[in-house]
Structure formats: structure tokens, C-alpha cells
Amino acid sequence: MKLFDNKQRIVIFTITLLALFFISACAKEVTPPPPPPAPPAGTLEVQPPKVEQETLIQMRPMVARALKLPEEAAATLPPYLSVLALPIKFNGAGWPADEMVFVDLVIPAEVEMKGLDRARGEDSIGIAVATADSKGRFEAVMESTAKLNWLLRTDWLPTVKPDITTIKPLPNGTYTIRATGIDPRTMATATWELQLVAP
Question: Nearest-CA neighbor of 52 among 170, 141, 142, 172?
Fold first, then answer.
């Protein structure tokens, strides 16, 4: 003995489909939870806050000694070379513990910088990196290679030595330094005044 004939099966199947459609249409849409807030950004300081011609000129004898040049040659050195001997540090506090912090130099639109792809929205170049300690403090140092690449905009020879004949120092001005954590929303900025060439 059959429980349902074919007509009854079709009716039951249709009613079941309609019920499922009605239930799914009436169900509330589940929206994903909002992303967690960004970890707090700490402070950012640049040392020295200003790179002045006077300081660079005073450092020329030290640069001449480092280059093994006679003392009288110091006066002929362009002052901007002294930036290679000038300690440049970026300090911060109040960052998430053990957070990696990337320090970038924001390049104004009118300044040319090799390797910077403005068509892809890039506006800065990385100049230092550090990891915050357990108390959220960090110190990043700008290395000589970064100074040559980004402050002096030097090309490199095939021997992997800087081609000092191609040096084109960044124009004088006030630049923005940006520190960013692993989460790019965790960010702090500071200003940095550069005077690499005579005004």
C-alpha cells in the first residue's frame, strides 16, 4: 500500500520548498561583528628635530678624518656629507608591548624619489624599524645606507658602493615622519626639519 501517490508527493515537495523559502526570507541578516579597534599608537620623537647647516659644517673635520683625508680638506667637503656621521634616532613610548614599529619619511608630491610609486598611492619610504619593549618604548636608528638612499638620494655602483657623483640631497624643508605599527591604523607622526644644502 502506497502512503502518497505522485501528485501528493509533488504537492508536499512544493509546500516544503515554499516553507524553506519563507523561513530564509524572514530570517534576520547576520552582520559580521565590527573589526576590533586599532591598538593605541604611542608617541614619536626625532633626534635631532632639526638638521641644520651650521651643525653639518662643524662636523666636516670628523668626516674628513673618517674618509682619511688631510685636515685641510675638511673645508672643501660639502656639508651635506656630514649627515652620514650625524646620529639620527626615532624614539617612542606608549606603544603596544613588543609591537614592531616602522618609521617612514613622507615625501612631498613635488619631491622626486627613486623607487616611490605614486601611481600606486605610495607617499613615503621606510627609513628605520624597531620593536617596542615590554613597556611600549622603542628606539630606531637611521643607518648610513638609508641616509645615502633617501636623504642624499645617491645611486649605487655595480661594486655596491655609493656613487657620490650622483648625490642629490633632499630639498630643505619641514618633512613628516610617520611611525606605524603592525596594524596600519596604529600610527603617530612628528615633523623633522632638514637643511642639507645652504639656504
Answer: 172
For residue 72, what are the β-bridge partners? none
**pLDDT of the chain along its 199 residues, tens only?**
455 566 666 766 677 766 666 666 665 667 788 877 877 789 999 999 999 999 999 999 998 888 888 888 889 999 999 999 999 999 999 999 999 999 999 999 999 998 888 889 999 999 999 999 999 999 999 999 999 999 999 999 999 888 888 999 999 999 999 999 988 888 999 999 999 998 8
Task: List the alpha helices (DSSP H) in the chain.
Answer: 6-26, 53-58, 60-66, 144-146
Query: What is the Cα gyration radius of the chain?
Result: 30
**From the candidate CATH numbers 2.40.330, 2.40.160, 3.30.200, 2.60.40, the one assigned to the domain spanning 45-194:** 2.60.40
Contact 156, 162 (CB under 8 A): yes
Closest Cα to residue 148, out of 170, 132, 131, 130?
170
d(CA 11, CA 84): 85
pTM: 0.78
The residue assigned the cell 646620529 is 87
